[in-house]
Amino acid sequence: MGAMSESVPVRCPACRRGHRYAAPSYPCVCGAPVSPPLDRQGTATAVTHPAWEEQWVTVRCSSCGRGAQWPHPELGCPCGTTLRIAVAGDTATAGATTAGATATENIPAGETSAGPPSPAPLPTPSPRRAFQPVAIRTARDAVTATALYLRWLGYRDIRRADQRPPSGIGIAARGLLAQVDPTVRPASVRDVECLWLTAMTESSRCVYFSLAGYADDARARADGLGVPLFVLDPTGVPQPVNSPADELDASGA
């Protein structure tokens, strides 16, 4: 695999303009960047009725073998058409986009000898690597930035939430329910309470991400319920706005 994601020619089926597209890379939890392998023989299709299930593709890291869902590659044409780029295979296996990446989870086997085996060394905690955000320009980018951040915190199996929230977009991970609000209005106290109640019925923690911030009574209610609140800035870095969010950002999953 090459060290960088290779660009492919793309033609808009609506206006016939030609483009070049290179898939973005995303950080695997093992630290190796991966990117969806593009199908050079495939044809871009126009997105007319976006469906959540079609907006994600499973990419498997060739360094550690983990599979994770990332946004399906798309390109905006100047004519206004959104193009979905063809990906090689339904479940893609993407090589690390940096040379020399190797798996880091091999467990050394104990040596056998006449004497008792040596005790295995205790694992030493390693600091989290720096968070690598994606810039937010669309609602889709806000969901991607949130998913990246939750993986950075240590949450796994990120997927669409089973229940659609009254506003925004719901995503879930093991033991967590998150709401992403990409609208231009501050989140209301009702938004926070609905998220908390839904999480309670699922015995999960919850966290709220908003582009426009929160109404004063929503922040006060979140503090009382222990709901972490984050604001997504344009760079894609979630900013904690209350104490529960500060604690989650510091400790992780």
UniProtKB/TrEMBL annotation:
Residues 116-126 have a biased composition (Pro residues). Residues 105-129 are annotated as: Disordered. This is Restriction endonuclease type IV Mrr domain-containing protein.
